[in-house]
Amino acid sequence: MTGTARGRDVTRLLADFGHDVPTLGAAPTPPKEARLFRHQPRRGTRVAGRGWAAASAPVTAYRMTSDQAPVFWPFIAGPGLPPTGAQMGIDMLSGSAFHADPVGWVLRDDIPVTNANVVCMGKPGTGKSATTKAFCLRMTDFGYRILILGDPKDEYERLCRFFGVTPFALGPGMPARINPLGLGPLAHGWADLTAEAARSRSAVAFTRWLTLVRALVGSQRIGSERVPFGPSEETVVKTALEDLTGYGTGNTTLTETTIPKLWHYLDAPTDRLIQQCRYSSRQHFLDQTRLLRDALGQLVSGALAGLFDDLTNIDVDWRAPIQSLSLSRLNPLGDEAVGTALVCLNSWGRGMREIADPGDLRVVVRDEVWKAMRLGVEAVKSLDEDLRLSRGVAGRGGDIQWLNAHKPSDMLTVGDQGSQAANIARDLMHLADVKILHGQKQGVARELDDMLGLGDQAREVMTGWAMQRKGRALWLVGERPYKVETRLHPLEEHLTWTNEALEGAI
Fold first, then answer.
1. Same domain, 199 and 285
2. Does 382 lie in the same domain as 259?
3. Which partner for 372 in 171, 207, 342, 348 could form a disulfide, CB atoms 3.0-4.6 Å apart?
4. pTM score of the predicted model
């Protein structure tokens, strides 16, 4: 062979004719000396498992949500909450247990919560009631007591029976009576108070009563307009209450009055009342207070006659784990009657908590709160006042105010868009630093996004993940979102079940 021509060598030629040429073994290669230092290429050694790269990797920035980040960094979680309070379920973002402790969160500087109010909102059937009851039940292990200020559907009766407590039932023909103008604990030891302490207590009581009467009168309508309650009406009502209780004449003890007594006193005013309210004559007084007196008269002789117009005759054991006031028997009277009852119970419940012992903490549940808010701006102001005072006053009180609703538009129907009532109702959402948002339809999720600035990811949690199973919700603790699935013990599932009516219909 010459040049670069390819062909068979002699060994192959002989092999083709059946002759194998013996071969010699290859000489062993002497071992190389080990090197102390070895040069490495810039991109690494081109060997499997050595991290070699064909090109330099550019530095790239990625932006993602906390829901997406665990895919790339599964062992890194966002700022968690301390394991205090009721263990509600699983924090799906971190995989750890989720604990709810609203009062404890307020006391910590590293959690952006300034009040213990809770708004629980969700489409019917998404687990809103179960979450509420599970929280209440589990917080009793930490010394909390439960107060259900109006149970329109008897949803909490089974929970009361579990603790051996019978709910108080209010309704036509029922013996229970609640006086929303009752003094409550403020009457205890009044004769022993100093003049300054008596003035302080009376100011608390009269403020509560004026808030109640303003809400009740404002719930009445003249066509499409609400009955007005201005400074003149407030002066008349306050002066009448001072006369009826004896405070205006300097009595050392106050006499408890009722709404019917207030109505009769205004319908047949004394000369002293007319003079104190600066009316020129009896007829002038009657003409100017006609709407006020007629509105109070409707409460006395209307659908709720006999329920809130006498002295309280129920003996509430405030040391019991739970107390509930059933309103299911009022449902045939309509939403407005139930809403009025809720306003009366709200005033009565506030009176029962005005002198709470330090450390006596309660979860105060307000179910179907939208029924009370639809009574007008004054009813909304009453609820607004409760939320603002949830931290307690003068070192006393301080409860977890828990509001249940279906959607934000339930609250905003209290008035026209941009009205005072609608603005106050909208602000109620911001007076609750803890929000539990269960599954919602797209339209409602957009409403919540517009109101709270949640963002696309939060909306997807409510409209997607939370709708797939009961008990799933987006928890907003201050500004921090948590994707939580409530887990129930079989006993709790029995206590929180609310579909008996549907089961019975099948």
1. yes
2. no
3. 342
4. 0.76
